[in-house]
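User: I'm curious what two different proteins look like when written out as structure tokens. Can you demonstrate?

Assistant: Sure. I'll show them one after the other, since each token string lines up with its own sequence. Here's the first protein:
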Amino acid sequence: VIVISLYFEHLQDFFFFLPFSRPQEVCLCPFLPLHPLHISTHLYIIQHPAEESKVLRTVPLLAACLPQDKCKVKTGRRFSEERDPELSNVCRKSDTLILYPGAEAANLEEFILDSPTYPSTIIIIDGTWSQAKDIFYKNSLFRLPKQVQLKTSISSQYVIRTQPTNRCLSTLECAAAALSILEKNNYIQETLLRPLQALCSFQLQHGAQIRLSKEHLLKNGLYPKPMPKNKRKLRKMELLMNSVKI
């Protein structure tokens, strides 16, 4: 089934046109907040160019819930001071964080308790895990802000797109969790998740299937593809089967 989405400016109309068993049109506007959420945190989404062509992506939903001056989306693979002075300035500020998991990342909730400067800006990379890794490590700007991660055991509600592990979250879910922590307001997370839940519900009611994580499929012998011959990719599969972070 081919899914085509039309994304209109400010998301005043967000439709999915789906042939066969899918509805002709679905509007998610009733699930958006009546007015953009009031937040003090500035959010920068660094989006891999490949995400722009994805139909069921979460960033448009996220942007529709937040004030335009608080949520900025920058698309590209490579960023530098010459190409983007604004982003360079943001990355150099002491109150900017970047949400990216790793051994050097601090737990966000614990960090804000001990930080002498309360964070005013958070950067999140939007893309597949391999795309996000490429952007993070090949752009020196993104290693200037303090690196933080979310400490959570919840599973993603973005069930119509396959995730590498059971603990991986979509960009919208990461932003929702981070903003609720930084703003100290759980209502923000509930509000941001509402359109995502509606999107998945509509799709599942009209032919879409729940996508289990690669980790789950491998552990339960359900992975539909032959194991890769490439040693690096095979090693990744083995780590997923043993619940090792990659």
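Here's a second, unrelated protein for contrast:
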Amino acid sequence: MSTHHDNCRRSLTLPVLGLGALIFIISIIGFLGALKNNTILLWIYLIMLCLVLVAILVFTVLAFIITNNGSGHSVAGLRYKEYQLKDYSSWFLNHLNNPENWKRLKSCLVKSEDCNNLSKKYKTLKQFKSAKLTPIEAGCCRPPFECGYPVVNASYYDLSFHPTSSNKDCKLYKNSRAVKCYNCDSCKAGVAQYMKIEWRVVAIFNLILFVVLSIVYFVGCCARRNAARSRSKI
């Protein structure tokens, strides 16, 4: 996630790194407690680790619930899917429809140059039509297929034609590099799909982490018991 060059697509990087740093600090406390046979440090370690396990479990369950809805719609003749904002969970809708949140996301989408690079990636119209666009490229860089605008090239559409759909995104789309379909619901849906994929990756990672830390927690409990027994013998 941290390899992405814009803030739109690394929203969970800092929380994941923060979680890793916290687990590292807790691990040091547990290591010192086991090394010095100190029950107080081991109790602190176990309590903090228990809180982390509960937090990971809650976040993972919420992440799976939030990302349960929403999927792309296949379009005849295209290799990529189109996305509709209404298909996603209420959390995504509230987050992306918030003017401040979308203003920030839109600004970094424009800076990312993803849309403007399409004409460089796909030199010919044939290449573009057979391309497998990402959710953000499909939703933010072009008008919805139902609008019926003729494609001139990968980054330009003939807007002199009257749209064949009443979809408001058809009128919001412009060929301008700074406008494109960044104000469209289809763009928000593309971002929602990307966030869904990102959250799912983190949720699966957290699930594996939860299992590993549960085993570590069990080992820590054993270490605390051994420390308590050693002290009672002394």
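A detail about the second structure: The CA atoms of residues 139 and 187 lie 4 Å apart.
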